[in-house]
Amino acid sequence: MDKVIVYENKKCEPIVFDVSTEEKREEAYKQLFEVVDEYGVFHFSTERQEEKLNRLQNPEIEYEDSVMIETERNGYVEKISKDEWRGRLQHVRSQISFIQERQRMYEAAKEGDADAMRKLLGTMKGQPYVDYHELKIQNQ
After folding, report:
1. What element of type H or E holds 37?
2. Distance (Å, rounded) from C-alpha 58 to C-alpha 38?
3. Domain match, 38 and 57 both
4. For the chain, how many structural domains are there in total?
5. Residue 66 and residue 35 in one domain
6. Is residue 58 located within the same domain as residue 87?
7. What are the pLDDT tens digits along the chain (140 aa)?
8. pTM, whole model, 2 decimals?
9. What is the DSSP string of 69-130?
10. Range of the domain at 57
11. Residues 35 and 71 in one domain
């Protein structure tokens, strides 16, 4: 064993996976994915972003150079320029696409796609319960 992945979080002792060969690496990522999935970190929802998008797409009042939109705090409206409005629309749409892509990746990973498991773990690395790192071990 000359390379390992060490996984740890505050709820478990460190787990060491042998990744010294490509076959072992693939198996290690499958096991790592299963361990991380038990903590429920792969829950992806676009509900909040879709609510934002709906508010943005349906402004309260539209002027020539600005719009009045409902804020996330119900009952409040804010006046913003049309450029900022278009920027916010684009930003929320890209957030939704990003979340949907992660959801597709998760579904592929659940079906056993090792590449999707590696990519999904990589994109979430450093978030709670997705803390792992690869180490080289010196043989003596």
Report:
1. helix 22-37
2. 39
3. no
4. 2
5. no
6. yes
7. 689 999 988 888 999 999 999 999 999 999 999 999 999 888 888 998 898 888 888 888 888 898 888 877 766 788 889 999 999 999 999 999 999 999 999 999 999 999 999 999 999 898 888 989 889 887 66
8. 0.76
9. EE-SSTT-EEEEEHHHHHHHHHHHHHHHHHHHHHHHHHHHHHTT-HHHHHHHHHHHTTSTT-
10. 47-96
11. no
